[in-house]
Amino acid sequence: MNDHTVGLPGAFNGMVARIAADAGFEGLYVSGAAVSASFGVPDIGLVTLNEFCNVIEQVCRASNLPVIADADTGFGEGEMLARTVHEYARAGAAGLHMEDQVFPKRCGHLDGKTLLTADDFIAKLEFATKARDAMGNDFIICARTDAAGVEGVDACVARAKAYIDAGADMIFPEGLKSEGDFANVADSLRTHSPRTYLLANMTEFGKTPIMPLEQFAKMGYHCVIWPVSTLRIAMGEVARFLESLKTSGDVSASLNTMQSREQLYKALRYTPGKPWTFPRGS
């Protein structure tokens, strides 16, 4: 097991991945919500498996970091989920998470979600774990449960235990509303299976209060994701810039907030006039 809690910021393209790696992060997360939004569509399962894999490959190659990627509801039933495991691994991901909602899914921090039965989700999960085992590597299968917001925290814990018993390497309890909920889930699952990894979602504007990485570490979570933060920061600034540009017809007011040409080239490991090769591992 990891001896510390790893923070995984969301990366929705290769450039974000490169900058996050330069900032010193140890791993990254590819969010279904952020990828969908970057395509201009809502997070309801409209982006295809191939489109997700394209983004995952960008992020992995640009950063050379371990990546956990969102697989939503698995792009289909069990056989399709098995393919998803293989395709995500081929794209370079270190693992994926799948959720126990019915399709079309909803953001985990929205109301009105509908869950698969635990037995139905376990049947899908078994396809994923068999695909993982067939590859003979350390690919992580993370089971996300949205039960806390639908059936309560006790149901979340019960489902998570069943998913661990079915072979999940990691559990992602989504939509928890307090530090007490996170601690309760962690304590219960650690007692059930001390070797199972735990993932916490530190998204903004949802049901979970903002908490620092250190707080999750004390509760025993192995990784914390900030899934949409980079997209929100980037798109917020883009919207402000475009409003200013439309009004003024001039970029001068925004120059001090832009990434300079020098900063861009530095991130890309590019020196004009010199041969460029893909900066893998640099």
Structure description:
The protein has ten helices and eight strands. Strands 1-8-7-6-5-4-3-2 form an eight-stranded parallel beta sheet. The protein has one domain (6-234): TIM Barrel (Alpha-Beta Barrel). The chain is globular. The protein is an alpha/beta fold and 282 residues long. Helices cover 44% and strands 12% of the residues. It has helices spanning 14-22, 32-38, 49-63, 78-91, 118-135, 153-165, 179-192, 213-219, 229-248, 261-268, and strands at residues 6-9, 28-30, 67-70, 95-99, 140-145, 170-173, 197-201, 223-226. The model has no long low-confidence stretch (mean pLDDT 93). The two termini are 26 Å apart.
- The span between the termini is 26 Å
Strand-residue proportion: 5-15%
Integer average pLDDT: 93
The major sheet is characterized as: 8 strands, parallel
What is the CATH topology assignment? TIM Barrel
Given the helix and strand composition, which structural class is it? alpha/beta
CATH level 4 superfamily? Phosphoenolpyruvate-binding domains
Contiguous low-pLDDT stretches (5 residues minimum) are: none
Please give the domain count: 1
Overall spatial form: globular
The DSSP helix count reads: 10
Supply the CATH architecture.
Alpha-Beta Barrel
User: How big is the Rg?
Assistant: 19 Å
Reading off the top of the CATH hierarchy, the class is best stated as Alpha Beta
Order of helices and strands: EHEHHEHEHEHEHEHEHH
What is the number of beta strands? 8
Helical coverage, percent range = 40-55%
Strand numbers in spatial order across the main sheet: 1-8-7-6-5-4-3-2
